[in-house]
Amino acid sequence: MSVYENLKAHGYELPTALSPAGLYVPIKRTGNLLYLSGQGSMWKGEHFTGRAGIDVTLEQAQEAAKYCMLNTLAALHGYLGDLNRVKNVVKILGFVACSDDFTQQAQVINGASQVLLDVFGENGRHARSAIGTNNLPLGLTVEIESIFEIE
């Protein structure tokens, strides 16, 4: 199945790609690698904010991570024109705004990793880091940057 068929089969839809919120480019290419700037937990104009372990549950944070990854795929689609050009997901780096004693950052970022596995299958398996922080831009709950290999 194509990437777009996988998206549809799992009930995912691509949003409009987010505009940069600063002096950077959303995607930087070197060779066959695409480095994507952090994509935040925003969906259809709504900002998912708050800190996990304080005013956001684990499940809500996982949903926010899913939105980050769908925003990532929207940026890739806009850049490539066809997500089927993605050969491999190389790595994602997830940041979770959370309380000092929150230790489930990896489980939060599973929300994004699951999207990649659903959409790209085995080529969606990736290296990953999940980091807790006290705050993210715009008060967002999750931000994820990523690296993709293309054909």
List the secondary-structure elements in sequence, H or E.
Answer: HEEEEHEHEE
- Largest sheet report: 5 strands, mixed
Overall 3D form = globular
Number of domains: 1
Write down the overall mean pLDDT.
Answer: 97
CATH level 1 class label: Alpha Beta
Distance linking N and C termini: 17 Å
The structural class is alpha+beta
Evaluate the radius of gyration. Answer: 14 Å
Helix content: 25-40%
Low-confidence stretches: none
Widest sheet, order of strands: 1-2-7-5-6
Please work out how many helical segments DSSP would assign: 3
What percentage of amino acids are in beta strands?
Answer: 25-35%
Number of strands: 7
- CATH architect. name: 2-Layer Sandwich
**What name does the CATH topology carry?**
60s Ribosomal Protein L30, Chain: A
CATH superfamily: RutC-like
Topology:
Blueprint: H1 3-9, E1 27-30, E2 33-40, E3 42-43, E4 46-47, H2 58-80, E5 86-97, H3 105-120, E6 127-133, E7 142-150
Parallel strand pairs: 5-6
Antiparallel strand pairs: 1-2, 2-7, 3-4, 5-7
Helix pairs in contact: 2-3
Question: Briefly, what is this?
Answer:
The chain is α+β, with helices and mostly antiparallel strands. It is built from three helices and seven strands, in the order H-E-E-E-E-H-E-H-E-E.
